[in-house]
Amino acid sequence: MTAFVACGGLRPRWLSVAFVLAFVLLAIAVPRPARADSVPERTASFGAEPITVRLDQAMLLKVPDRTATLVIGNPLIADVAVQSGGLVVVTGKGYGATNLIVLDRAGTVLMEHPIQVVGPVDSVVLYRGIERESYSCLPTCERRIVLGDSVNYFNANLTQGTILNAQAQGSSPK
Fold it and tell me: Domain residues of the chain, as ranges?
C-alpha cells in the first residue's frame, strides 16, 4: 500500500506484471478434485511400473473407451468396480501382487498392468510373543484388524464391534 501512495496513485509496471505472474502460478499450483477426464489413462504392458494401492484403500484408474471385460488375476489381493465415464475403482484387499487385464469385445488386450497392494501408512504392529496386534495411529492409536493379526486379537475386536453396533442400534448384543 505504501508503494501505491508513494507513486502518486499509479502502480509501477513491474508490480502489475509481478502480480499477474503470481496469480497465474497460484492458479496452476492449487490442487483440484479429480474428475473423470483428469484421471490418467494407463496403457502399459505387464513389464511396466505397478499400480500401487494401499490395503483397504481405493484408487481411480481410467481404462480405454472400447473396454468390454476386466480381469483381475487374484481377486483376494485386489478388486475392481466399473464406474461411468471409463473409470475403474481398484481396491486393495490383501497383501501381494496381481494383475489387471482389460479386453475389448473381440478379446483383444487393450491394457495389462501389474497391481501391488502394500500395507497401510498409519499402522503400528505390536507383537506379544507370537500374538500380533495392529493399531491405526493417526492422530491417536486405535485398534485395527489387519491381515496377519492373531486370532484372539481378531475375535476380541470382532466381539467389541458387535457390542458397539448393538449399542448404537439401541439393542443388546446377541
Answer: 1-30, 36-118, 123-169
pLDDT digit string (tens) for 70-82?
Answer: 999 999 999 999 9
Domain 36-118 coded CATH 2.60.40.1080:
yes
pTM of the predicted protein model = 0.57
Do the beta carbons of residue 129 and residue 152 sit within 8 Å? no
Q: Where are any strands of DSSP class E within the chain?
A: 51-54, 58-62, 69-72, 78-83, 87-92, 96-103, 109-118, 123-128, 131-137, 141-144
| Residue type present at position 44 | A
Q: How far is CA 91 from the centre of its chain?
A: 8
CB 93 within 8 A of CB 117: yes
